[in-house]
Amino acid sequence: MIWILGATGRTGREIAAQVAARGGTPVLVGRNAERLHKTAAELGLADVEVIETDQPAAEIARRRPAVVVNTIGGYAETAVPIARACLLGGHYVDLANDLVAMPRLLTLHDEAVAGGSTFVTGAGFGVLGTEAVVAALCADRPTPTHVRVDSMASVAIDGGQLGEALAQSIVSGLTTGGRRYENGRMVPTRLAADPREHALPDGQTAKSAGGPTGELLAAHLASGAPDVVATSGLMPTAPVVRALLPLAGALLKIPVLRRFAVRRMAAIELKPTPRPREHSWGHAVVTWADGTVREGWLRAGEAMEFTSSAAAEVAVRLDRGEGRPGAYTPARALGPEVAEAAGGTTYQP
User: Fold this and answer.
1) Which domains, ranges and CATH numbers included, belong to the chain?
2) For 157, which DSSP code?
3) Ramachandran category for residue 255: left, alpha or beta (phi over 0 → left; psi -120 to 50 → alpha)
4) SS3 breakdown of the chain: % helix, strand, coil, rounded to 5?
5) Which residue numbers in the chain have pLDDT < 70?
6) How far apart are CA 30 and CA 117, in angstroms?
7) What is the pLDDT of residues 308-344, one digit of tens each?
């Protein structure tokens, strides 16, 4: 059984469908049984089990599912207690992509090893779409000196409110500020530093800039490089906006302003918008001390569809017993080939 927490949301629904398509048995978990049954019927999964609960960790500890996929967000707060509830022997997957939640989950490595469980964080386009390229470029090579990764997601926007989980993620990124690795240490840098314009392999272009994303941590872990830079296509590149970001981040560190900003942003109504490009791209450039430079790309479709496919692929593989005990990012847990199994295609010029 593969439990999908937050199964009525867009991502949860898609992961449930992808798990079923891969031969797994999804269980839809959420706070409203009526909505869960409606979701199951809409997905053509009317016979699957649904579980109504507002205390998922307690329910997991009681019923012992084989794998839990956490899509409910707020990973900095939800990941650790839910993952620990999977011990002993159960497995955990989430979609975190920030420098608060991911390190917290990875600190559970020794607990997971002792408990015979596999915990995977960052099972989405940004982390997997870049770390898989880094891992492939570094295969059978010594530790590089420098790595740069660029994540350029192409995302279709559904109509409706932005939502609290995404609003919290945006505000958290602004207050964290920029980060990079220098001499093996993660150090602060200006938010939206290193702006770049990329000529993509399909002939289109995309812009990106530095941000406090999980791609940075994953690239460092995948390569061991002391110097790592990560940029994201979701970060602003316009000079005026980039100039204002440090001030915005400083103001949002004030608790009352932070809470106000999250509430206001969560209520923003989004208009349905098609994805800006046909493909999403993960990109890496790896440099070694002898001057060797390798570059690689991963092409995917719509980024959230890839994320759902990646999370489902990881969950099904863990359900089949393919993981190894510990806490990892996806490619370190199951190998970089999991990105292609999720629908990505890799290129090395």
Assistant:
1) 2-124+305-344 (3.40.50.720), 125-302 (3.30.360.10)
2) B
3) alpha
4) 40, 25, 35
5) 162, 165-166
6) 23
7) 999 999 999 999 999 999 999 999 999 999 999 999 9
